[in-house]
Design goal:
Blueprint: H1 5-8, H2 13-45, H3 49-65, H4 67-77, H5 79-99, H6 103-131, H7 134-165, H8 170-173, H9 175-188, H10 203-222, E1 230-232, E2 235-236, H11 237-257, H12 273-303, H13 308-314, H14 317-336, H15 338-359, H16 370-392, H17 400-432, H18 437-441, H19 452-477, H20 497-505
Pfam families: MFS_1 (PF07690)
Subcellular location: Cell membrane
Keywords: Antibiotic resistance, Cell membrane, Membrane, Transmembrane, Transmembrane helix, Transport
């Protein structure tokens, strides 16, 4: 038997949040941690460039495409049980990643890691909604969002330290003790919250959505590799993308026909302007955060010549600042409303990236980008928490699982699109600057003074693309609804006239 939300709130909610955030941090960290360890992994496994691409993409692809279904799994089997199962799969797959000997084994293990992360991730928001009362939920989502922002850009930092101090395999082994501790915490601390409803999994809808999203993600990730043209015979990147969009169109029609039979995506979610706008902003924020990571890593290692560990440390200020700002912003959104925090926050977010781009010159010191990173971190802290709070605050308890799955899906698709779009732009600009193909393929690993100016210009183009996305997101945030008016305190009831007369007579 599961517990309902009031009973769940009898647990220590902050202890529950600590368990959820530790697990959540691992899943997002593994989205980016591989980037900085690629040279050592390639050498250790004898991997080709294509293999290297899939070390990261296999994880992101499975992660992004299975989130919709996993949100429903939590509704059906219970958020705590589903969360624990996903955490167990992720932890075991992390250990396997550390022991593999071939590129094929690594790609397979990374895909299984993505499966565990996809099953686990949506349950975190549903459980936070269940264990925290409404008046404290903003602060809880603030902490959750701070961890999300920290994990998104901390991959190179943590990865660089592990690669420099130990070995590339430890970027996966580090998950094992954390995962085991989180598993114990999930079984002991996290309540078994149930909605009390028997939810259909809608497997045809899951197949259509997964296939459609997989084709779109594949096309975006692999597009530059095939020069956005032919893959083999009649199969091309444009055709893959069109097929993906067509399958998602069929998925939408299928969902429309199932709205009275517990669909995978209840359209009533999008009747909430707060959820719709916040989910879209979440995608744009991940686009910007992941889009910043690739150019900066390229700049720090290929232009400034920093080691993996040094490059990781140079990226610390932004997420560190956001860790302190996000809980305050999450708590304030209930009083001020989304627009008053998100619009200026997104402009600060974009300003930090723009300042970093301006200061990133071929002959700059690493200290030149620190001010921009601090401003970026302030903006990140201001925007990550409110988007999560606003997305979930109007969702009824029976839909929290699927809503959190949808919200996280939007975010992860934004991350995939951001990585693909910025990567494609970098390749295009490197070619325009006259950097040879062999250098472009190795750009994240080589330092070549002859191409420093070209690499720097390409990096700045990538950064300015994310600035443009931040400005568009700020305009979109103006569509958020105003905060609900606070109820006025009730005035004391006026004494009854008869009672006054009786007292006077007495």
């Amino acid at each position: 038997m599961g517990t309902d939300a009031p009973e769940a709130r009898q647990r220590n909610p902050w202890l529950v949040l600590a368990v959820l955030c530790a697990s959540f941090f691992m899943t997002l960290l593994d989205t980016t941690i591989v980037t900085i360890a690629v040279p050592e992994m390639a050498a250790g496994l004898g991997a080709s460039l294509d293999d290297i691409l899939w070390f990261a993409n296999a994880y992101m692809l499975v992660f992004a495409t299975l989130l919709l279904l996993s949100g429903r799994l939590g509704d059906r089997f219970g958020a705590q049980r589903t969360f624990t199962a996903g955490l167990a799969v992720f932890t075991v797959a992390s250990a396997v990643c550390g022991f593999v000997d071939t590129p094929g084994q690594m790609i397979t293990a990374r895909a299984v890691q993505g499966l565990g992360a996809a099953v686990m991730m949506p349950q975190t928001l549903a459980l936070i909604s269940a264990v925290f009362p409404a008046e404290r939920r903003g602060a809880a989502f603030g902490v959750w969002s701070a961890v999300a922002g920290l994990a998104t850009v901390a991959g190179p930092t943590v990865g660089g330290a592990l690669v420099s101090g130990l070995d590339w395999r430890w970027i996966f082994f580090i998950n094992v003790p954390i995962g085991v501790a989180a598993l114990v915490g999930a079984l002991v601390v996290v309540p078994d919250v149930r909605t009390g409803q028997r939810t259909s999994l809608d497997l045809p809808g899951a197949v259509l959505s997964t296939a459609g999203l997989s084709l779109i993600v594949y096309g975006l990730v692999e597009g530059e590799r095939y020069d956005w043209g032919t893959i083999e015979s009649f199969l091309s990147i444009p055709l893959v993308l069109v097929l993906g969009v067509a399958l998602l169109g069929l998925f939408a029609l299928h969902q429309r026909a199932r709205q009275d039979r517990r669909p995978l995506v209840p359209f009533e979610l999008f009747r909430s302007r707060g959820f719709t706008v916040s989910a879209t902003l979440g995608a744009m924020l991940l686009f910007g955060s992941i889009g910043v990571l690739l150019p900066l890593t390229l700049y720090l290692q290929s232009v400034l010549g920093l080691s993996a560990g040094e490059a990781g440390l140079a990226l610390v200020p932004g997420p560190l600042v956001s860790l302190f700002v996000a809980p305050v912003a999450g708590n304030a959104v209930g009083r001020l409303g989304g627009r008053k925090i998100l619009v200026p926050g997104l402009l600060v977010f974009g300003s930090g990236i723009a300042l970093t781009a301006v200061m990133a010159q071929a002959d700059s010191s690493v200290w030149a980008i620190i001010p921009g990173q601090i401003v970026f971190g302030i903006g990140m802290g201001l925007v990550f928490a409110p988007t999560s709070t606003l997305a979930m605050q109007e969702i009824p308890p029976r839909l929290t699982g699927v809503a959190s799955g949808m919200f996280t899906t939007f975010r992860q698709i934004g991350a995939v699109v951001g990585a693909a779009a910025v990567g494609a732009l970098l390749q295009n600009r490197l070619a325009a600057e006259g950097v040879p193909q062999e250098v472009r393929e190795q750009a994240g690993r080589l330092t070549d003074a002859a191409y420093a100016d070209g690499l720097t210009d390409a990096v700045r183009y990538g950064l300015f693309l994310t600035v443009a996305v931040a400005v568009i997101a700020a305009a979109l945030a103006l569509l958020l609804p105003p905060p609900a008016p606070r109820p006025e305190p009730e005035a004391p009831a006026a004494p009854h006239a008869g009672a006054d007369l009786a007292r006077a007579v007495d």
